[in-house]
Amino acid sequence: MSQLRPHFYRALHNDGRLSHGRLPAHDRQDLEQLLAEQAATLLFACPMPWPEPRLNSLQVTELCFQWEQLLGAGLPLLETIEICRSESASRQLKGILQRLGHDLRHGLTLSQALQLQSRHFDPGLIAGIRAAEYSGDLAEACASQYRYRRWLEQFRQQLRQNLSGPLLSGLVCLAACGFLILHTAPQLQQFAYRQGTALPASTTWLLHALAWLQTPTPWLLLGCILLPGAILLLHLDTLRRPLHRKLLDLPLLGPLWLHFELARFCRTLGLLYAAGLPLLAALSISRDVLRNAHLRSTCAHAIEKISSGQSLSIAFANRSAPSFSSPFPTLFLRLLAIGEQAGRLGESLHTLAEHFTLHTQARMQQLQDLLPPLLTMLLGLVLIATTWSVISPLQQLLVSGGGLR
Question: pLDDT confidence of 149, banded at 50, 70, 90?
């Protein structure tokens, strides 16, 4: 089944109204059928020449909450989709929901309809809905997805709040340094030249660096290094893996990233496994939520081991072979083994998700406590060094010129 493509359209309704907008469709004929359900005739259609913007995570979270409430109240799925479409303020979301309703009326399941619009709905959500369709508890699946996504939104909001203050202070400090370097230092150089006085070495180096930066050479060199490097890192997973592995070893930031990734992985895997999805399928989908290439590679290797007959805990532990240190903490491996032996893997995964969530929040608090003073000290040193490079020659000029007696 091919992916949908957004189309611009203009249509005439039976009551004489003209409407326009964009709707996802396979082709013009498919778009005509979609508009016919709204008692409208297609006048003009054109595929969008660029990709459609994705739904933001907050919109998907709110959609899961609405589905949970309406389905839990006993409303049919089609009526739930229609209510959400009519109450949405986003024209893009209205079109997406209209397409979902159209696909449901033509015999597709909700997970199949979501899969056609996988640009907006991630694999974890689609797999959770698919598993709920087998278990028959769609409202609970939407509730689980809502709780998970709300936690993720809270984490992102906390991260933005923690970084906004230090970054703003850094911008102010850099602006002050830029003013001293770009405006004051050249004037000081001209004044020293007229006085016939040599500038200190630190100021001379600063002025030479400024003159060099004003030429195209450093920027061309920087572009020649960064552009190929960025392309290689984005497209070559073999280069990303060692880099991401080293990043996990960084103090404070490494454990923070590791615990955040494991919290997402365990929560997603626990939701899918509890919903009745087979373990291998749940692992394959949960692997996609990992952004660390080293962890993703380790998980892929574990999936191969499990498919060959090994247990979950042994498959993850087997990566701790010679010349390889497992990125997974001992607690993660032990609780997986206990959950498998006791037949309570879903509960073990939920416990691990809560554990790593608490550790992530604790690491975030540590980062919040340490980052402002460290950044303030660093910016203070930069500002002192820049100011000294400008003030010290000024003092020297005043003394040599008889300004200070």
Answer: confident
